[in-house]
Structure formats: structure tokens, C-alpha cells
Input
Amino acid sequence: MTNEALDGLWYLAAMSSELKRGAVLRRILFGDPVALGRTGEGGAFALRDVCPHRAAPLSAGRVCRVGGAPALECPYHAWAFRASDGVCVSAPALSASEGRDPSTIGTRAYLLHEANGLVWIYRGDGAPETSPPDIGLDASYKPKTVTVVESEGPFDEAVIGLVDPAHTPTVHKQWWWREGAARQEKEKFFEPTPIGFKMPAHKPSSNTRIYKFIGGAPTTEIEFRLPALRLEHIRNDKRRILGLTAMTPLAPDRTRIVHVIFWDFAFLDLLRPIAQSMADDFLAQDGAILSKQNMNLSRLEHRPLYFGDADEPAKWYLKLKRAYAARKQEGGFKNPLAPASLRWRT
Output
């Protein structure tokens, strides 16, 4: 089970801004080629990027209309597949006398959900077992900064980096974060959520300078949800910021990491280029250490050593993943975690 992507959950497939009207992009997700596109009317769609005829990539074709419905046309023989369900609606080389029905052929169509500038894809068959992620923002919030990094190495290790509190002062060194600040003893309370765990709203660390910029008396709430979503809500009495990080497995040894920041501070709009540069630097450091780690993981079998409270969130993630993978045999998913307080120095 380890390092395999869980089914029955939603993953971040793309940013809305990546999908242009009437255009298609090819992306490898979960080891499978996927054609992500947007119809001329603006609806997003996702089809398996393999024509069942001769395996040509549908993403190299064009968005068209057949019988009044949006479709994706194969670049090889112009077979067209309806964007909504992947059913073949046209095979132009067929003679009328053959009497064959192209609608008996199809390519897989994936369920998508688009909100707040994010396009989520459901991994699983049949009706969704879970609702698309609700990130706690109304529809007016759109991404202010977007950073994308593709990391090498096992998917689980990338996700563990997402919940690991101990690497921060070593890996992330910026003047605006905590460079030069002495480590402090921390005690944080965690509680289970429907498909994860969270650190409820609390006063942020005093040795993390970025929070002081916000002003007022901000609180921060940090949540992790399966399969690989981290949400950090920062609020004061008037404003809010959301930092969202989502990970999607591309192949067994490659993960797409997307970090998005939302805010409603008009003043911060003026500083968006600076905020973008800061986010880019921060995520690049995570990608770099994962690639260095993979220099060993790709060559040898290594059993992780979990040592102390700071490593408990990693163990929680693996326990959650095992429980979710076994949900059908166990009669449904039940979060196996209990409320806990952890102590570490950071």
C-alpha cells in the first residue's frame, strides 16, 4: 500500500488558469496520461489521453463539437470523444454501409470539480465517496500567488514533508521566516478531523517573523487532509490569508507540489511580486531536499526511523492512509487518531 495513491479521494489536477478555452494539456497523473481541457463554453473536462483506436494522445488533437456537444478529436484518424463522458461520437472513416456504432467505444472520463481557481480530479470508479475539498473560502477568493514544483522521490515521503514540523528551521532559511532565530520549545494540540487532523486556531510562534507583518492579534489554524492537502488559515480581526499546499502523484517517483496563497488584504496586492518570489523560494527548498533524499531512497531499501514527538505527524499520516485503504474491508472509514499534544523544539 505504501506510496500508492489512495482512491476514493480528490487530488489537485490543475489550476484553472492552466486550462484555456478550446485548448487541452497533457499531464501524467497517478502514472496515467490524462488530457485536461476546457470547452469553448468554459467547462473543464478530463479524459484518458489515449485513443482506444491506435493509442494516439488525444491531447494532441482539437476541441470540437459533434452533435451539438463538446468533444475531443484524435489527431490521428479524427475519432472524436465526448468531453463529458468519453464516449466516441464520431469515427469518420466508417462507411455508412458498415453499420458499426462508434458509441460502443470510449475512453475514460474523470470527474472534475472547479472552485476558487483550483481544478480537482476524483480518483476512483463510480459515484464519488467523498465531496470535493471545501477550503473554507467563498467563491470570490482567487489565487494571489501560485508556485509549482515537481519533486523526485516516493509520494509518501513528499507528503510526510508536508506534515513534518521539525525540518522548518533547517530547510527554510529566509530573513522573513526565522533565519537566525533561536529554537524554542513548542507544545501544540492536535485533534482529528473527518479525513485528517488539525492544529486548532492558536497564537502563532513568536520566532516566525512573517506573522508580525499581518498586524493585530493573528491566529493560525493548520489542517492536514487525505490524500495530501495542507491548509493554513491565518486570521486577525479583519483579514485572512490561506496558504494551501496540495500534492498529486504523477508517477511512482515523481510528485507535483502546488502551493497557493489567497488573501483579502488590498495592501498585499501591491506586494504580490514579492510574495510570489518568497513563496517560490520556500517551495524550491522543499523540492531540493526531497531530491537529495531521493539520491539514497532510489538506490537502497530504507526503513524510516521515527524519533520523538516531532515525528508523530508522519506516523499519523501513515496510520490514516492504512485505515482509508482498508475502509471497504472494515465497513467504512473511521479516523484512527485521538486528540494529542506534542512537544518539540523549532
Observations:
- The first helix runs from residue 155 to 163.
- The CA atoms of residues 61 and 75 lie 4 Å apart.
- The chain has six helices and 18 strands.
- The mean pLDDT is 92.
